[in-house]
Amino acid sequence: MSVLSILVLGLTLAVLLVSALLVWSLWTRRVFDWLPAYLSGLRNRPRPGNGPVHVMFCFVDHYEPRWGNCDYETERKRVRRWCEDYPRLCEGHRDADGRPPRHSFFFPEEEYRPEHMKDLVELCSRGYGEIEVHLHHDNDTEAGLREKLRGFTRLLADEYGALPVMPDGRVAWAFVHGNWALDNSRPDGRWCGVNNELIVLREEGCYADFTLPSAPDATQTRTINSIYYATDDPHCPKSHDHGEPVRVGGQPSGDLMIIQGPLGLNWRWRKFGVVPRIENADVRRTSPPRMDRTDLWVRTGIHVAGRPEWVFVKVHTHGTQEGDVDTLLGPPTAAMFTHLESRYNDGERYKLHYVTAREMYNIIKAAEAGCAGDPDLYRDHVIPAPTFRAAQK
Description:
This protein is α/β, with parallel strands linked by helices. It has eleven helices and twelve strands. The chain has helices at about 5-30, 35-45, 70-90, 115-130, 140-160, 195-205, 290-300, 320-330, 330-345, 355-370, 390, and strands at about 55-60, 105-110, 130-135, 175, 205-210, 225-230, 245, 255-260, 265-270, 275-280, 310-315, 350-355. The protein is globular. The N and C termini lie far apart (about 85 Å).
């Protein structure tokens, strides 16, 4: 065998090995479940028209003070750290509307303590964010789920003004499901148990779910990078696997709006220099908010159909875990804010808007209603702002 033949054979084997490694990595991380939707999105991504692209940036936190079954003093330290350091992190950072970064604290019903809530309400009343609903439950029933949601949301609204109350007296709130298991979507049936969960959420006052993306978890839907209405099938789990896109001039349908964050493949940040990382909008120490990630979030272009110049970027974290908090409240996140403000807030090509989960939903509903122009006008379009009464006493 000639030297050339040996080189060709070696190169071929290397290519096959790398290809096998890539396929194995994607298969084990369940990428092929949503890869068709991802590739379709790349082919069919619409181009914004004239004028600036408005970037709505929302940071969703699965905020769990009791994470790891810690002791009480650790819980208090975690909450105090956010209340003390987050305002310092936001110093000098403003969007096109003069607002600081705004954090959405999705607080678990089962981890409620009055002292934690009082601290977060005080922080949010200063303009740094809002509080929403998080829940971990297992082997639950419809009745048990309703009792948990109704009691917790009424408590947050009545005692703290932490959730808005609609004119008809209904408490309005957004939701993130613990363990990603929205609508009983885990294959093993753990961490939920309620197949009609979307219906229950809607009937109890939830206006939108912010759980996704959850990849590489098995709960990840085939629908990705979308804002859509899901219709619940009470006889089957994971009814939000597909849905009807929210569109300009459209009407609400189904049971619940699903607002997803970016999901895709990051070829600029590869494992071993070969395998692309899954970009699932999770921010932590091992997945810091690098500039290439931030650019990919914006470039994904999640939008209401017919309004591509309004881009919705929702990223998520678990903000109380000690291994990650220095990233979330330190230089990496400050650098992310600086990058957003320098690249996506020039006033001509881009305008940046820091929004809470509620404000993001309101702007989506404004787009659906045909509103255009500056999204800052629509932060309270449908759901009013919370009053945070406890912080004012």
